[in-house]
Write a structure and sequence with these properties.
Low-confidence stretches: none
Number of domains: 1
Structural class: alpha+beta
Number of helices: 4
Helix content: 40-55%
Length: 103
């Protein structure tokens, strides 16, 4: 994931998710979403929670996040990121998916 991040974005270091959108001639969208479980686990540990559910939830969050990017959603960098419409939509989907996983 480090190499892919460097090659695609020019940024050094590990990233948790990379998303690529491939608009189709018919107006549809295809895309690839790459997730990094190691980065997700590290993030969860830095938040003081390393249990399996927390890691699973973070992986769901990353999958939703990448999918929203593929579909054309975006968010600002910095402090406004977690208040953006995309982030709110993402968290709504994460809650729904996590509830479904509990059944």
């Amino acid at each position: 994931m480090r190499r892919l991040n460097r090659r695609v974005t020019g940024r050094r270091g590990l990233t948790d998710v990379l998303a690529f959108s491939f608009p189709q001639p018919d107006g549809g969208v295809l895309g690839d979403v790459y997730l990094c479980p190691v980065a997700a686990e590290r993030y969860v540990r830095t938040q003081g929670n390393g249990n399996r559910r927390a890691v699973r939830e973070e992986m769901v969050r990353l999958a939703v996040h990448g999918t929203l990017h593929v579909l054309g959603y975006d968010h600002p960098e910095g402090v406004g990121r977690m208040r953006s419409p995309m982030w709110r939509r993402q968290e709504r989907y994460v809650r729904r998916l996590m509830r479904r996983g509990e059944r």
